[in-house]
Amino acid sequence: MKAHLEITGERVVEEDYLQSVGTYTIYAMHAASYRFAEAYCRDKKVLDMGCGSGYGTRHICTVAQEAHGFDVAEDAIAYARERYQSANLHYHHAPLGSPLPFPDESFDVILSFQVIEHIKNDEAYLLEARRLLREGGILIVITPDRKNRLLPAQKPWNRWHVREYSQKSLNQLVSRHFSTTHELRLGAAWNVAKTEIRRYRKTKWLTLPATLPFIPEFMRRSFLNTIHTLMDTSGARSRPPSREPKQYDFDESAFVISKDPPNSMNIVIIAEHK
After folding, report:
1. Rounded Cα–Cα distance for residues 98 and 210 (Å)
2. Pairing label, strands 45-49, 66-71
């Protein structure tokens, strides 16, 4: 039976990324993250900690000695196992909150791309990464940059995100368990970043006051879920996607990971287990 993967808006699925410039921008941004990680993963044993549909882990296996993708979503792992196969590529599932099914110090590199913002206990998440990483191993964390996405102290307008970090707050968190070596950001020139940045600017105002800092979490989630339900009912999300291929004038190489790139969209922290 062919594995089916429900599209939630938080999963990047390769066959759907060409449907709009918005989804393509997000896909290309993710692809740029994995391309950046290649140099750290070459000939290493790598864990992609929260691999989703598995396309990024599949990319990393082309340079790594071994690439392991882990996710708490069974359907995502079933999809990844069916779609992506290689002798040095492995996908794993474990329930939310349980230890990952690996011995201590199993990996040379751990990737955490667009995951930590979903985790209620981010301290425990990083402690598990520390357990799995050998001494001298590298952790790369990439997560949305709240600088352009949110107003000061605003809660996330993404209903799946528990919190979003500033570069300072994420570095402080990671530094409690690892030694930070680089504090970077991912951005792009305006002609590439504009779709995402305009979406941020619009959504952070449209979701007030439900995302104000004093609003209880259940109210924030209820409001955001209602918005998505209304969008689905109105057909804004339920129309069948066009399968006609679309072409765009940029790819992942248009995204820059550096100290201060233009139009920052993601924070990138690189740390070492000492």
Report:
1. 32
2. parallel
Rg (CA), the chain: 18
Q: What burial class does residue 43 get, using C-beta atoms within 10 Å of its C-beta: 0-12 exposed, 13-18 middle, 19+ buried?
A: exposed
* Residue in this structure with the two tokens 């209903």, named with its chain if needed: 159
pLDDT in tens, 89-147: 999 998 887 889 999 999 999 999 999 999 999 999 999 999 999 999 999 999 999 99
Q: Phi/psi of residue 185, each to 5°?
A: -135, 155
DSSP characters over 252-274 = GGGEEEESS-SS--EEEEEEE--
CA 108 to chain centre: 20
Query: Is-above-0.85 flag for pTM?
Result: yes
Q: Whose CA is closest to 104, among 132, 126, 130?
A: 132
Per-residue pLDDT at 6:
53
Continuous segment of H or E residues that includes residue 48: strand 45-49
The residue assigned the tokens 């964390």 is 141
Query: For residue range 7-30, what is the model confidence (pLDDT) as tens digits?
Result: 455 556 766 787 889 999 999 999
pLDDT at 238 over 50: no
The single residue listed with the structure tokens 């100290």 is: 259
User: Do residues 100 and 70 touch, judged by C-beta distance below 8 A?
Assistant: yes
| 103-113 per-position pLDDT tens digit | 999 999 999 99
What lies within 8 Å, CB to CB, of 19 at 6+ separation is: 241, 242, 246
Neighbours of 186 (CB within 10 A): 23
Strand partners, 255: 188
φ, ψ (nearest 5 deg) of residue 69: -105, 135
